[in-house]
Amino acid sequence: MRVEAIDLFYLSMPEVLDIGDGSQDALLVRVSAGGEVGYGECEAAPLPSIASLVCPMSHSACKPVAASVLGAKLDDPSDIVRIGDAVRANSLDLLQADHTLSGIDMALWDLLGKRLSEPVWKLVGWQRTFPKTPYFSVLFGDTPEETLAKARHARSRGFRAAKFGWGPFGRHTVVEDESQIAAAREGLGEDGILLIDAGTVWNADLAAARQRLPALMRARAAWLEEPFVSGALTEYKQLSYESGAVGIAGGEGCHNFFMAKHMIDFAGLTYVQIDAGRIGGISVARQVADYALSKGVTYVNHTFTSHLALSASLQPYAGIENHEICEYPAEPKPLALAITRNHLLPGSDGQVRLPDTPGLGMEVNPEGLAPYLVDTEIRVRGKTLYRTPALSATTSPPPSPPDHQKDWQPE
Amino acid sequence: MRVEAIDLFYLSMPEVLDIGDGSQDALLVRVSAGGEVGYGECEAAPLPSIASLVCPMSHSACKPVAASVLGAKLDDPSDIVRIGDAVRANSLDLLQADHTLSGIDMALWDLLGKRLSEPVWKLVGWQRTFPKTPYFSVLFGDTPEETLAKARHARSRGFRAAKFGWGPFGRHTVVEDESQIAAAREGLGEDGILLIDAGTVWNADLAAARQRLPALMRARAAWLEEPFVSGALTEYKQLSYESGAVGIAGGEGCHNFFMAKHMIDFAGLTYVQIDAGRIGGISVARQVADYALSKGVTYVNHTFTSHLALSASLQPYAGIENHEICEYPAEPKPLALAITRNHLLPGSDGQVRLPDTPGLGMEVNPEGLAPYLVDTEIRVRGKTLYRTPALSATTSPPPSPPDHQKDWQPE
Predict the structure, then answer these.
(1) Is B131 exposed, middle or buried (0-12, 13-18, 19+ CB in 10 A)?
(2) I need a labelling partner for B186 at 20 to 30 A (CA). Which of A210, B86, B107, B346 fits?
(3) A43 and chain B: CB distance < 8 Å anywhere?
(4) A311-330: per-residue pLDDT in tens?
């Protein structure tokens, strides 16, 4: 079959707050081929991603993402890898393309899995899946008291691991951060797995990160995440020499395989955290999982949004038994929960399992998303390149393509 | 003063061909503050870059680029560095932001230079400038005969250095590439400086690149550029071990300081090529020039478009005497030439010199760009976030800001 249509849906909460909560909007991707549809989600700014799908060509290595996907052959897994390679070559100079490709890649896997009646984890080469230990992933409270309450709430919901990040952490004094870390440990109990996320707050400032190590060690944090931006390999490496039993985690900013490889090779990471919605999709994330395994670095998903994104982000390392921790969005906005009818709830043992059903195993609920749909239109030279498509899933025949899709039909 | 307006102009040739010529369209940036305007140019896909300027906020680290620039203080060079840092932090998860910032940063330097009556190269810390040896930068011909003619043309125009890239190179047999390389050398003469640009055609395939080394050595190519994508550090390094007197060049794909640093640290480069229109502007490029100098790697500009971009791309290393080669767009499309009234023509000695006049020293010709202006409109929730602004430069008072700019006034 051939890829017939790519529809992007910009979804948003009515109000987006200036906080580190990435579940406030979403870019849902629907791909149609051979009478099937597949869904994916970009962890990306919606409007620039939409523009990167449909923009006019600038030159041979700066084409819109759609140019490499629409009309492409889609019969087996190697076709999806080939589509990704084509996007990276044909959109080499279009920076946003990796983020846009990510959601499309997920949707292609979902679609192919449905077509072949196989779960994606099997199509990407795993024989079986292993349950993951979810960590309750939330923002720090504004005060240590709020953080304490959040940590207690995590335990009361059955989570034995929790991660606290962003918010005030790293932005004020070392003493205030120590109070936050101690509150998280107290609320989680002595036997909880405590994870701390600095959200790149120190950019590349080694000294600032170093000052927080004693409190992290005292609280027996399992990791300190993103003390620096992804590029600060030297600073990462030095901090990892000094952090003792506190592992260093990072990698969510990686938008291609090489960036993740460099973090694994040069940053002294204990954990590499990959967002399948940014790195180029499940295909690239799967490559990183293999590479991490070969280098003794533990792979962890990065997911703060929907359960569609959660399923997609677990597929790449579903078959690695001892890479067992996984991020679990704990306080997503209603929009993120509305994207799917089913959700990956922890079992009675507290573990999360991927579905065995075809594709990503998630039932997207287009009709339920109407309240969140952001009406968007892009016009260039009087021609509509993009207009928010209808949410209701039409499968066969595919919807009549907008202008930009007509330009890129199969040859 | 405060930044009052950012206007983006999407310019394009009437027809954009599927060839590696990046001068077929442009994104011109005009920044207004204190009754002055400054100009810059993003080496980027125009539509996604426009979208990244004006898109709604997704969360605290995924804000539109405008949010960190409009209303910001602009009185001295440190303000420009601070604006760039703010964009990188506030738009951390907006991938396209680095490309968009690049043109804005140039425009800020241009504006500040005009305000302070100083050339930009002085504001970025150089005491004087040194002339550069321009290389005539063109695409390979479709045949060796065409390449031969292009090389002879370069010499006849007084250039003693020339670079041939993209086109058929690397896409067919080794023998065909050898013919192309030999034709370039023949046309350039034995004493010419010959440079070859593979345009990432081998992605990360070391064996494919290695096969071309004998012909490059025979032709005494001074460098092989971009055999691989920017991330393939290991492959770059290995090739540089084997390439003898043929230097390895790369880096144009870098969109932040760290990427360039990694190429300098880990890729075995002889030359690091920085496009100020992609890496985050003159500010970041200047940092890379210092770092390259400290590591014994030669800095070279990457410029294939206008003379505005050329001036901006030479500022970062204008004061380094022995980093003397510079890329010179030799066959730009009429659009690229129309952007400025003046051009950086080689002197009678064949050398290119930066102007001593304030700012970037280039006189942008807005009125002459009307034929190339691409009418563009972006609407979200019924609100116009972007509409192509008028080309005629209004300075004081600034134009009434569109809706998105009203959202981000100085506090």
Answers:
(1) middle
(2) B346
(3) yes
(4) 999 999 999 999 999 999 98
